[in-house]
């Protein structure tokens, strides 16, 4: 191959999606579309009630509103592209649009990792130091905590997206994936990607390892405090204040670790080859988890259910 072709730029990418499984495309189109609508409705309602109901103007619900907004942004950054790909075999996406999609997806995923850690600290203070909670978790504290979560996620995304789009792809522009995921794009590079791999590992430690460690330590203290409560009713009430967050953490990180620890399939030539599960597991992580978050918080939280009922009754009364 001539050097000119070896270093030729890529103007756009082709997303294979589920083109190898045409019978599944229509079924997943309907399924993912319904899930996306549930995500928009559920998280949108949570954002509304946390803004409109004064009883929910607390740090926990401020973080919950951020989480709901983040889930809407995360799914919107990829789901419309995935749905379009189900209807358009071998969907073509421009290089710049692919870069934007990578940036947004990585930003939202990284931000959620950090934000869940911030929410764990909020629950730790509420249960382990309830008398100091209004002082420790004042507005001057929890607003910068949320802003820093977005800043950390955005900064990490800028670094990794910049490192990725600077790579030469040598004319290889077929992404065997549902969307422009950074790991899938990196496989197309025709140069050494050691710097990218090292930076991803550092990001995994900072954005995954540190929050998981922080959340784990927080819940050790939370559980120890709950077990010291003498009455069963007191223990139940204390646990109910953090059970929704704990459930969301288990689903989010459980799916994330399973997705990245699962060995990628290989073909006989040793080249990376995505099988069906390699594509559907990230889809589960990107759609099912944001769909479950508002359901979990609504079912396990009397304040949220009451606020939703009040919002619905006001809508019905105005009509």
From TrEMBL:
One Pfam family here: 7tm_4
Keywords in alphabetical order: Cell membrane, G-protein coupled receptor, Membrane, Olfaction, Receptor, Sensory transduction, Transducer, Transmembrane, Transmembrane helix
UniProt-annotated location(s): Cell membrane
PROSITE patterns found in the cross-reference section: G_PROTEIN_RECEP_F1_1 (PS00237), G_PROTEIN_RECEP_F1_2 (PS50262)
Domain G-protein coupled receptors family 1 profile: 42-297
GO molecular function, one term: G protein-coupled receptor activity
Stated role: Putative odorant or sperm cell receptor. Odorant receptor.
Protein family per UniProt: Belongs to the G-protein coupled receptor 1 family.
Protein name: Olfactory receptor
Natural source organism: Nyctereutes procyonoides (Raccoon dog)
